[in-house]
From TrEMBL:
Name listed for the protein in its UniProt record: Homoserine dehydrogenase
Classification via PROSITE patterns: ACT, HOMOSER_DHGENASE
Leader sequence segment: none
Molecular function (Gene Ontology), one example: NADP binding
Gene that encodes the chain: thrA
Binding site for NADPH: 110
Originating species: Amycolatopsis taiwanensis
Length: 437
């Protein structure tokens, strides 16, 4: 390897906060690829310290670098803080302190960014520091930089994708084996795909944080996790999966972020996370296992798709290292990365106004006039029916109804009223439909 040429002989000193699944891979790559990273950054990138909760549990790491005092490491003589601990506090305080002192921050912490991105960005801007977070959404996939930089001259209208590997693994397995949700979650935990506490994944919190980050970047507005309508996958039954299969569809947990233009021309943002049926021919349907994939639609660019490993130590470390090189370059050459862009300040549209399509399965009494009664309820709520399929059983009939687009509120009210009808024995499954024009 040829000798690294550095700008004014300086070194970029890095504090690594957290050395777990992702942090340990970052530390490894920083050490193993030190020469290449220095060549790309324009100066050696040196690990100045590693903060962990229990230093005695890390015999693999150089003792002189280890500390349990992350706050003191942040305050020490470092240029960049790489945060891979996770959660809100005390991390938020440490990162704000670092940014206010002009130290750049690289983080993979979607939970923090989805709530406090504005505060962190303001602190970074005030001090002229960088805040990079490519690894926070979709792990290794270069997605946030394209949204922040490559597509900065375009008008993005929609970002829709699979941004949680755990739930995608579970839904893919349910689809291929026919097993139910509980069995599949157990298998996912046994194989190490689901975390010991899978709540953030299966209840959609992780995907909602990512949707908030994506919507903020795509639509130049501030969207937080609490603005995102969220439903998880615990209610997805093997019946839902079979019903989707029977219609040439599959079930995915999608994050859907849209720019919505009202009839009077005013714009707003819609951001939601919930299970949906998509056609098997849709590119997202083929994304199996723990992989992530995100569809972006922009006025000039058209449709783009980003695909790859959305989690895991090494894949996520790749995104962190990419950010670290960018931040180090900026420090060495005196530039800055992109600042927060929230100039559009679009409001978030209430979820109940979102136009969507429903797939509804009902067990109904099998006698004349039942279909007409059910159809009447749809009409009363101004929900147009796109397709109806009926299968007879002994004394009941199984009715599958797919609607055209209607506001979420009208669809919810329709399902509620149908559920109370004497002729309806059971509302077996209700699922939204996406990806069909
Ligand atoms: P881990 O739980 O594996 O690691 C967390 C690390 O933080 C551990 O080294 C732990 O120390 C350390 N830590 C915890 N509390 C403190 C504290 N108070 N002071 C100092 N150190 C502390 O997390 P991951 O590596 O999985 O995730 C890190 C971040 O990356 C999170 O924000 C996560 O959301 C994000 N992320 C993770 C992905 C993944 O695939 N795992 C993918 C994309 C993003 P100790 O080792 O002593 O316990
Ligand atoms: N728990 C997350 C997932 C990790 O399953 O996708 C990546 O953020």
């Amino acid at each position: 390897m040829s000798e690294v040429s550095t700008v004014d002989g300086r070194t970029v000193r890095v504090a690594l906060l957290g050395c777990g699944t992702v942090g340990r891979e970052v530390a490894r790559l920083l050490t193993e690829q030190a020469d290449e990273l220095a060549a790309r950054a324009g100066a050696p990138v040196e690990l100045a310290g590693i903060a962990v909760r229990r230093p005695d549990k890390h015999p693999e790491l150089p003792r002189h670098l280890l500390t349990a005092d992350a706050g003191a490491l942040v305050e020490s003589d470092v240029d960049v803080v790489v945060e891979l601990i996770g959660g809100i506090e005390p991390v938020r305080g440490w990162l704000l302190s670092a940014l206010r002192k002009g130290k750049s921050v690289v983080t993979a912490n979607k939970a923090l960014l989805a709530e406090y991105s504005a505060e962190l960005s303001e602190a970074a801007d005030a001090a002229g520091a960088d805040l990079y977070f490519e690894a926070a959404v979709a792990g290794a996939i270069p997605l946030l930089r394209p949204l922040r930089e490559s597509l900065a001259g375009d008008r993005i209208t929609k970002v829709m994708g699979i941004v949680n590997g755990t739930t995608n693994y579970i839904l893919s397995a349910m689809d291929s084996t026919g097993a139910n949700y509980a069995e599949t979650l157990e298998e996912a935990s046994r194989l190490g795909y689901a975390e010991a506490d899978p709540t953030a994944d299966v209840d959609g919190y992780d995907a909602a944080s990512k949707a908030a980050i994506l919507a903020s970047l795509a639509f130049h507005s501030r969207v937080t996790a609490s603005d995102v309508h969220r439903e998880g996958i615990a209610g997805v039954s093997s019946f839902d999966i079979a019903a989707a299969k029977a219609l040439g569809r599959t079930v995915k947990l999608l994050a859907i972020c849209e720019r919505v233009t009202a009839d009077d021309g005013t714009e707003s943002v819609s951001a939601r996370v919930h299970p949906v049926m998509i056609p098997r021919s849709h590119p997202l349907a083929a994304v199996g296992g723990a992989f992530n994939a995100v569809f972006v639609e922009a006025d000039a660019a058209g449709e783009l798709m980003f695909y790859g490993q959305g989690a895991g130590g090494a894949p996520t470390a790749s995104a962190v290292l990419g950010d670290l090189v960018a931040v180090a370059r900026n420090r060495v050459l005196g530039g800055r990365g992109p600042r927060e862009s929230a100039h559009a300040a679009l409001p978030v549209r209430p979820h109940l106004q979102t136009p969507t399509r429903y797939h509804i399965s009902l067990d109904v009494a099998d006698r004349p006039g039942v279909l007409a009664q059910v159809a009447h309820v749809f009409a009363a709520h101004e929900v147009s029916i796109a397709a109806v399929r009926q299968r007879d059983r002994t004394s009941t009939a199984s009715l599958v109804i797919v609607t055209h687009l209607a506001p979420e509120a009208a669809l919810e009210a329709t399902v509620e009223e149908i559920g109370k009808m004497d002729v309806v024995h059971e509302v077996v499954s209700v699922m939204r439909v996406e990806g069909e024009d």
